[in-house]
Amino acid sequence: MERQILRKLARWKDSRYRKPLLLEGAHRVGKTWVLKTFGERCYENTVYVSFTENEAYKAIFEPNRDVDRILATLAKTTGRAIEPGRTLIVFDDIGECPKALNALKYFCEDAPQYHVAGTATPPTTAFSKPASFPVGKVDFMRLDPMTFTEFLRADGDADAADSLDAICTLEPIPEVLFGVLFEKLARYFMTGGMPEAVGFWTEHAAEHTAARDADPVRSVLAESAKAYERDFVVHGKAREFSRITEVWNSLPSQLARKNEAFSYGIVREGARSRTYGAAVRWLEEARLVHQIPRSTGLGLPVASYDDRSAFRLCPADVGLLCGLADLARPLSSAAGEGAGEIERNRLFAELNGSLTEAFVLQSLIAQFEVTPRYWAEGPSSGATIFLIQRENDIFPVEVRTEGKEVDEGRGGGLERLKAAFPDHIKLCVRFSTENLKLKGDVLTVPLFLADRTDRLIGLALDRMKEGRSV
Predict the structure, then answer these.
(1) Is 272 buried (19+), middle (13-18) or exposed (0-12) by CB count in 10 A?
(2) How confident is the model at residue 380, as a pLDDT?
(3) Which site among 110, 170, 284, 406 is 20 to 30 Å from 431 CA-CA?
(4) How far is CA 249 from CA 253, 282, 343, 353, in A?
């Protein structure tokens, strides 16, 4: 597997402003693999310390925070020399050892020549005592599930990934490649971006395509969903375990309600936020879900227009949603070679389109620092409108799953939004199964290009400045 974050880590290594690094992300998203691979590629050796595999390492940080003593003890314990700039020190699951987490402050202040990185899995680190967290003394990076492009490379489709990397205009994708990419996107919907499921799929790459059906992947996804429930027991408070599980298992039903806010009543009849609010926050801190607030306006900052009484919860990975909803088997017929347009559209409309919306949100969150919002005039069966902030502009994003080009004169969601805020919108983005194009102020993006949204918006704005929007 090739992860794009490895390039960011290489820039961190060479930065003159480098601090100890915390690589954050959900359990099983691949943080340990990324740091080990980074160490193998960019350093002469790696000193790996896991606080969950060997709790004896915690004792190294007990006497005091003297960095020279810690380094000497680590070198003796691991049998590896530790040299500035040549050795990567990896503290895995550093949140399990608060004193090691606190020691990063002293690595930053007293020994900045050493390269130190740790994996951090919220909410362990998010809820650390203030005294143990090295505020202002660490750099942060977030590892998200694998993108569709990363999936292509892992699945042996480097040529297809290269073709996406090479897009530098807003011309339609050649029809042959267009169909192939949608077939591969259907496979990605089946696995999602969690490395375990992707790895299981790619391990069968040498087998006949017919043998690579959804059933084995479905088992992996279902087991992953259950594994997170076991994490709730280990990392959550005992009294919250059942509530976290109930919220987690309610997600497919929540998302199937088109364009409607999260309802505690779906979790359990008569439930209220005061009972389940902490469970929602726990899942969000654990990076397993994203809370998407409802917005009432298009100004900056976007947070100032949040309706605090309404939000949507979206799983961090489309594959996890498949596992929760047990949807891997129905997708198998659409995921093979030669999947036709009818099957393609049926797939992307599954669960009232929430699979597709989850995929788009997953792609947007990985690209933009500000969490997207959603726009809703009220309960509606129409397409969902999300709002993304790019620099100092807000862009409405529509996700359509029925595979039909929209008649702008019909008064769809984007058109009503533009009419309500005529001076606030430079460009609208529409994700669908249509081909890439810019028409007027609407950029139509095929779903398989969702993880290229930032670049495509830039291309569209440049083209509109030149007066070539058609």
Answers:
(1) exposed
(2) 47
(3) 284
(4) 8, 14, 27, 18
